[in-house]
Amino acid sequence: MTVKCSRRAVDFAVVGAVVVPGVVMSVIGLWGIDRGGMWRDEAVTFQVARRSLPQIWHLLHSVDAVHGLYYLLMHPVLAVRCGEVALRLPSLCAAAVTAGLVAALGARLARPRVGLWAGLLYAVTPMVGHFAQEGRSYALVAAGVAGATLLLVRAADQEGRASGRGLGVGCGPVGAGRAVPRAPCGGWCWGGYGGVVALTVLLHEMALLVLLAHAATLALARMPRRVWWAWGRAAGGVLLVVLPLVLVSSGQAGQVAWLRAPGAGAVEGLLRSFTGPTPLVLGPYLLLIALALCAPPARRGELSLLAVALPLLLVPPATLLAVSRHWPLFDDRYVLYALAGAPLLAAAGADRLAGAAARLRGLRARHVDAYAVTCLGVFGVALAFVAQLPVLRADRDPARRPDDLAAVSAAAARRMSHGDPVLFLPALARRAAVAYPEGFRGTADIALRETGPVSGTLYGRETGPGELRRRLDGLDRVWVVAEPYALRPGWSPPAPAEQVKLALVRAEFVPRAEYGRKGSVMRLYVRRSSAAAEARAAGGV
What pTM does this model have? Predict the structure, then answer.
């Protein structure tokens, strides 16, 4: 009877540890989710996912194959309700699921309170909150990696038990035991693990680096050959599934040509993103991680929290940073999923600190002490949340993104008249008109030949240099909507059509008025002859 009560108490503690972080993440993510504007990457999701399935497939042959599955998943979401909140809701749900999965990992590998603390720490991290409100795939990838890591732990435990080497971790009273009870897994675990990893990598191929992290986990745990063989078969299946995507996306490598080799501050920036940008949080966070690293080594064939969390935290970012020194591919959002390792280690460090304090006081692990320690840890996470509240609040402002396409469209609506000719320089500056066409309604896009859905491109296919010159010849004025760099004197576009646009505007027109918005410039040009005539008329008067 006592054993049954103890197990029920443990089960209740685990459920609470998993559910609470998910609820907290949902509340934080819903706060300010309708910030009133999309930036360029979200706008791509918004316009592509609303296309028909054949049009999406047509697009993926030339661009954005790496995001193809995500667009296909978002297609029915935006078909039900088309709006910015609907665009971001899948990311919010994924972030909430990830917080729960991080908690489940902590509860399984240590104890329920470690899972609770880790899940809550994950939920209040500003980087997590940022991508929970981003209409892109990164939060979904983080959820997939966390789920795959949990399946790895279960599958490795099952294989270890089958070979006589389980995790070897017992279960005691609530808050005092070293782990939660191990439910039988069965042979489906490795298949489920491989399937989840494959699906995650198809969402974004940078998630493939998690296989290196999981290999390092098995190596640190000194797993038996049987486990390695089972994992190798699952990993090999993943590679076969994602190979076509890798081959196609390698032909679209020009999409990441804007990336540069990471500088000296890349590691520090990533560290602050993963743990928290404020010094009040960063210092204690790193101290707790250091305490977790001082844990005694686990027995051979035993998966410890350290063996799971440390490779997850370090291996994907370190690998991508190393590769990017020669082939620039690094961006912190590509390794968002690695962040889950940081709160797990910090929570384990806090648990070691609590255990050391209890031993110094000579206390036994009674229920009242366990609950008090759990509440104290939750209070510590709440303090971290309060310290980072200004960062979270500022992130809800559209101005914090690289651009605000809604503001560009609104400015166009105020200043452009019906029938005004508009020239986008370069063609991708058309993104504001594609995302928010209301502000450009009635204007004439003089360079456009085919729209994006028809041409299988993101921003449409433009007319040739000769036709563009003919269209411009009959105009006395034209609005140019440009990326800020496109109007700088030293910019020289690589594409011939863009060169013609720039040359014609500079040679035959002069600027009359300019209006800037973050990430975009609107400039009114008038033909030189017209400007000269106006000047002579003004002088005569």
Answer: 0.91
Q: What is the pLDDT of residue 381?
A: 97
Q: Which amino acid appears at position 285 of this protein?
A: Y
Burial class, 256, CB count within 10 angstroms (exposed 0-12 / middle 13-18 / buried 19+)? middle
Classified as helix, coil or strand, 418 is coil
From residue 449, how far is each of 173, 432, 498 by CA, in Å?
71, 18, 14
381-397 confidence digits (pLDDT tens): 999 999 999 999 999 98
Query: So what's the pLDDT on residue 401?
Result: 87
Give every strand in the sheet of 509-517, ordered side by side.
444-445, 421-425, 477-482, 520-527, 509-517
Partners of 523 in beta bridges: 480, 514
Q: Give the residue among 141, 293, 112, 114 at the shortest CA–CA distance from 220.
A: 293
Residue range 481-514, pLDDT digits in tens: 999 988 888 888 888 888 888 898 888 999 999 9
- Nearest-CA neighbor of 87 among 75, 98, 99? 75
256-259, long-range: CB < 8 A, 24+ apart: 256/328, 256/329, 259/324, 259/328, 259/329, 259/330, 259/331
* CA distance readout (Å), 264 to 183, 259, 313, 398: 46, 15, 19, 29
Q: Work out whether strand 444-445 and strand 509-517 pair parallel, antiparallel, or are unpaired.
A: unpaired
Q: How far apart, in whole angstroms, are the C-alpha atoms of residue 501 and residue 266?
A: 37
Tally Cβ neighbours within 10 Å of residue 485. Answer: 11
The pLDDT of residue 423 is: 96
DSSP conformation class of 417: -
Which of the 8 DSSP states describes residue 364? Answer: -
Nearest Cα to Cα of residue 91 among 67, 68, 70: 70
